[in-house]
Write a structure and sequence with these properties.
- The complex is a heterodimer of chains A (114) and B (112).
- With 114 residues, chain A is mainly β.
- Chain A is 0% helix and 49% strand.
- Chain A has no helices and eleven strands.
- In chain A, a hairpin with a 2-residue loop joins strand 5 and strand 6.
- With 112 residues, chain B is mainly β.
- Chain B starts with a strand and ends with a strand.
- Chain B is built from no helices and eleven strands.
- The chains are: A mainly beta (114), B mainly beta (112).
Chain lengths: 114, 112
């Protein structure tokens, strides 16, 4: 089965801790994305990566970090510098070309700071 | 800031009626897409329309694109209770890489 998998589904973090959200895809997609969604809101782009070993900041990158060491994996670390990290985090991937950039989404990770 | 802005923010209709949602954007685009999200889940791609296309159909969905007005509409015909979800438009721009930006979404509620 091809797809994109996020884990865990629910994550609780104490204030001051860093946490890492996992995102894995077996679709052979070059591009991967991380979005944040707050209740009743749209998606805001945190980071995106067009190719292995390269990534760019999105609109709200402060307090987050990513790596893209493998094509299949794009983990997101929420650092203690992120002041309001409680949100729903969505990972997506796409082929990455301009003519066919349909994004495939994971089921999301709900992060709660306790 | 968000590239796409959906209108209305929320829409409530009776089953069998048509639902129309609009999306406006600010800069030139490569293509525009519509996605659906059920509560607490990931997004599912519905339809993609390229910047040189004006209309596209897929089942009960009809999408239009007016690049001169920088706007798009999604029409769902003969709505069903199962269509209840949030609908997002997304624009794709080539900024040295293809960046997909989502709007805030329209929350559709279809009453049985």
């Amino acid at each position: 089965d091809g797809g994109i998998t996020q884990s865990p589904k629910y994550l609780f973090r104490k204030e001051g801790q860093n946490v890492t959200l996992s995102c894995e895809q077996n679709l052979n997609h070059d591009a991967m994305y991380w979005y944040r969604q707050d209740p009743g809101q749209g998606l805001r782009l945190i980071y995106y990566s067009q190719i292995v070993n390269d990534f760019q900041k999105g609109d709200i990158a402060e307090g987050y970090s990513v790596s893209r060491e493998k094509k299949e994996s794009f983990p997101l670390t929420v650092t203690s510098a992120q002041k309001n990290p409680t949100a729903f985090y969505l990972c997506a991937s796409s082929i990455g070309t301009g003519l066919n950039t349909e994004a495939f989404f994971g089921q999301g990770t709900r992060l709660t700071v306790v | 800031s968000q590239q796409g802005e959906e209108d209305p923010q929320a829409l409530s209709i009776q089953e069998g009626e048509n639902a129309t949602m609009n999306c406006s954007y600010k800069t030139s685009i490569n293509n525009l897409q519509w996605y659906r999200q059920n509560s607490g889940r990931g997004l599912v791609h519905l339809i993609l329309i390229r910047s040189n296309e004006r209309e596209k159909h897929s089942g009960r969905l009809r999408v239009t694109l007016d690049t001169s007005k920088k706007s798009s509409s999604l029409l769902i015909t003969a709505s069903r209770a199962a269509d209840t979800a949030s609908y997002f438009c997304a624009t794709v721009r080539n900024t040295g890489g293809f960046k997909t930006i989502f709007g805030a979404g329209t929350r559709l509620f279809v009453k049985a």
